[in-house]
Amino acid sequence: MKPGYVIPGVDAAAATDMPVLLPVAERLSRETGRQRREGVWRLELRAWHGFVLFAVFLLSLGVAEAQVETPGDRSPLATLVRWIPFLLWQNGNGFVLNLIISFLAMAIGTVAGAALGLGQISIFKPVRMICWSVTQLFRNSPWLVLLFCIMLLLPFEIEIGDTVYNIPDWMKAVIGFSLPIMANLSEVVRGAVLSIPTGQWESSEALAFSRIQQLWMIVLPQCFKRMIPPWMNWYAILTMATPLCSIMGVEESVHLAQQAMAAEDSRPELLAPFYSFLMVMFFLYCYPIARWTIRLERKYVVNI
Amino acid sequence: MQAIYDWARELYQETGINLVFIYEEYERVRFIEGFQNTLWLGIICILLSVVIGVIGAWLQGSHLRPVRLLVAGYIQFFRNTPPLVQLLFFYFALGKTLENLGLMPMYEADGWQHPLIGNFGWAVVSLSFFAGSFNVEIFRSGIEAVPTATREAAEALGYTRLKAYIYIVLPLAFRVCLPALNNNLVNLVKTTTLAYVIAVPEMMYTANQIWSDNVNVPEMMATLFIVYVSLVGVLVWMMHRWERALRVVGFGQGA
Q: For residue B217, which residues of chain A lie inside 8 Å, CB to CB?
């Protein structure tokens, strides 16, 4: 190519101070790409969100206090305080159950998702295809449909030998939640492995590493850091999704809040304080995770 | 069609797999209505959320600070609370309060008074606002991505401001937005199942009615599953093709 015939933008880097699109387009495209790889938007919680929620809680409580007409009624604050143990931890139900469900679903989803994700990059085509289809199936179906499926299709008790084991509802919910988590984490694993430059594979092959060794000693250690932020983001999203199983009668916090309000004669002024209280609880739990995710992301951003 | 109905009935008699919504007309009508409702819910919400996104993006460029703050507050509220809570809030808190205050226009049908915005209406409102809040930011980034120089060049060529906006800025902005928009719209279609909670007779709800009447949970579940996955699959496929056709050549990787 003669030096006189270089066309900027075609033969060489575009040399212009007039870009076709501004950097914000690049940013949107990057965000979209990440959302596609990870299957969910990044949770962006700020401290002031918490303050607003807390203010809403206080305000609704104040309004509720002002609405007490008959002197015999207990004040909303006292009512809420009385129900707090019931809502949060009593009998291992309530908010604690939300957390237990989220832990277990995440644990099962992570293990299954890692296996499925590694299956997706298998060199054996049938395994790759099967893992890909399973991933796509569970990634593309609505959470509520999956939850319904598992809750209604699994038996409520199983017989192993002579003993009959009851499967409580919340355990079925755990499995229902772990399926979409599994599929999405499988994509995360696949994406992370594919993001490792092929040079790493080739050079380790040249150094006589076997495929398992390459994966285990060269590629996965580098992927690990990249998978942590999406993994934590998914955990926060999952925790926020656990109240979905209240529809199926699992005794987690939202369901118990409804019961508690029903037990208090369904006074309408209790609605806002109870729900905003739960929102504050969820915020307090998810906020540190969301912030930490962003910090880790920044820390790990330049590693290859 | 009759052959398929007969096949389903035979299947039930021989294997016990009860695809009642195929061979029995009553259930068939019910299921198809549910499917149509899901489709309508999806389509209306997609269109409305795009409209909300465009208007919101336009308002965000307003010179008035209160307007910008209002839009920012709207986005923060809808992005950071679960759609389930929004749905319950709109239907039970807002809808019922409006009805109790007598602010909701009513119409009469079947001898009953119905509110103008019933559960379907509130589901549309709530889900559209939910997806719209994401669309506002997407459209705004798209419009911001078009350099002022391009706009000025268009004006130098004799375009009016409106014409420059329609023929130069929006086509470019739309191409930038499309991938992000697709993500959001696919997500929206999946979220429509939540309308079940406020008893909108969409597919999930009717399937629930059918399996409650016929005790054929596994069959209905499998059907529901297949229909939803194919619905989302078709949407994703169409959007991807469109996206590839409208890709800005030489820009980013998009997908």
A: 152-153
Domains and CATH numbers, chain B: 38-245 (1.10.3720.10)
Total domain count for chain A?
A: 1
Contact A25 B217 (CB under 8 A): no
Nearest by CB: A28 against B180, B218, B236:
B180
CB contact under 8 A, A21 and B251: yes
pLDDT at res. B255: 36
> Do the Cβ atoms of A141 and B225 come within 8 Å?
yes
| Host domain of residue A160 | 77-300
For an interface test with A, give the residue of B35, B127, B229, B240 to mutate (most A CBs within 10 A).
B229
Q: Which residues of chain B lie closer than 8 angstroms to A145, CB-CB? A: 193, 204, 224-225, 228
Q: What is the pLDDT of residues B67-108, one digit of tens each?
A: 889 998 888 888 877 788 788 888 877 777 777 777 777 777
The ipTM value here is: 0.72
Alpha-carbon distance A187 to nearest alpha carbon in chain B (angstroms) = 14
User: Where residue B44 falls among pLDDT bands split at 50, 70, 90?
Assistant: very high
For CA atoms B191, A182, A236, A100, give the dihedral sign.
positive
So what's the pLDDT on residue A177?
92
Partner residue opposite B232 with nearest CB, options A32, A140, A143: A140
Chain A residues with CB-CB distance to B177 below 8 A: 28
Residues of chain A predicted below pLDDT 50: 1, 303-304
CATH code, domain carrying A291: 1.10.3720.10
